[in-house]
Specification:
Distance between the termini: 77 Å
Number of strands: 0
Strand content: under 5%
Largest sheet: none
Helix content: 55-70%
Structural class: mainly alpha
Shape: extended
Radius of gyration: 21 Å
Number of helices: 4
């Protein structure tokens, strides 16, 4: 027997078709509480998947470290961009 269709507001982003994207975005909660709740859910998913495991490895910690390196590079890119054109002589 076929399953009933899933409501658009209950769909995940990867399941939304391109034509449904504007209406799906309009149904999201963009209040400060909604944004904090989304960040909290994302942190909880990451923590339970990579950190809070029986046999942990370096995967979760290395992803945090890689994210830190990328973000710090983005923050200092304007300084690095000007420095590559300087001559050292």
């Amino acid at each position: 027997m076929a399953q009933p269709p899933v409501l658009l507001k209950d769909m995940k982003l990867l399941d939304v078709k391109l034509g449904q994207l504007p209406s799906w975005l309009a149904m999201r909660d963009f209040t400060p509480g909604g944004i904090v709740g989304a960040l909290r859910r994302g942190y909880d998913r990451y923590y339970n998947k990579y950190i809070n495991v029986k046999k942990g490895g370096l995967g979760g910690i290395s992803m945090v470290l890689a994210g830190y390196v990328v973000i710090s590079y983005i923050w200092s890119y304007s300084h690095l961009k000007h420095e590559r054109h300087r001559k050292y002589h």
